[in-house]
Specification:
heterodimer, A: about 120 residues, mainly beta, six-stranded mixed sheet, four-stranded antiparallel sheet, about 0% helix, globular, B: about 110 residues, seven-stranded mixed sheet
Chain lengths: ~120, ~110
């Protein structure tokens, strides 16, 4: 079973770029989709987007103009960049495995990393 | 985007109570729905996927039902560790969307 660990700055200035990295350990990184999700009291849980191990991405249309994701399969890492941040981007940022399957079917968002608080101020 | 509406937003219950939480989708999402539990300071944890399948290790007191637009999470006998916030999420299409959460508090 994978373990995910988020790392990155906890404080970002308005108009600057938020950058976070998620490191995956414990199981295979390749052939899976990896997601970023954020949570705030105002917006609740919000899916930001996913990246495949080969670099293919899909983003939430509400954030697409400011979001980019990259992947480094050699390090079992994927990263998030969110540009031109504003106070409304403050929240806890999580990474998660987008899709998992077994003989019973497929699920979304399991497991999750521990999350990291990012404050825009 | 598919809108997910949970009700109630919060409830008070006692240990041993049967608790039901509802999630309604703004369009037909077949059975592509999951339920998550989140305790304070922790990441959400997957309880149920595909509407009714318990993730490995989840106690059998949790169950899910529904299809189309209306879904239910039931806890048959609430335990102390079940006091938490519960979220539904649709994985029918993108963008994935979550319900706003139901906080289960101790009466």
């Amino acid at each position: 079973h994978e373990q995910l660990q988020v790392s990155g700055p906890g404080l970002v200035r308005p108009s600057e770029t938020l950058s976070l990295t998620c490191t995956v350990s414990g199981d295979s990184f390749s052939n899976y989709y990896w997601s970023w999700i954020r949570q705030s009291p105002e917006k609740g849980l919000e899916w930001i987007g996913y990246i495949f191990h080969d670099g293919r991405t899909k983003y939430n249309p509400t954030l697409e103009s400011r979001v980019s994701m990259t992947v480094d399969p050699s390090e079992n890492q994927f990263s998030l960049r969110l540009t031109s941040v504003i106070a409304a981007d403050t929240g806890v940022y999580y990474c998660a495995k987008e899709v998992g399957c077994d003989s019973r079917g497929c699920w979304t968002f399991d497991p999750w990393g521990q999350g990291t608080q990012v404050i825009v101020s | 985007a598919v809108q997910m509406t949970q009700s109630p937003s919060s409830l008070s219950a006692s240990v041993g109570d049967r608790v039901t939480i509802t999630c309604r989708a703004s369009q037909d999402i077949r059975s592509d729905l999951g339920w998550y539990q989140q305790r304070p300071g922790e990441a959400p944890k997957l309880l149920i996927f595909a509407t009714s399948i318990l993730q490995t290790g989840v106690p059998s007191r949790f169950s899910g039902s529904g299809s189309g637009t209306d879904f239910t999470l039931t806890v048959s006998s609430l335990q102390p560790e079940d006091f938490a916030t519960y979220y539904c999420v649709q994985n029918y299409n993108y963008p994935r969307t979550f319900g706003q959460g139901t906080k289960v508090e101790i009466k």
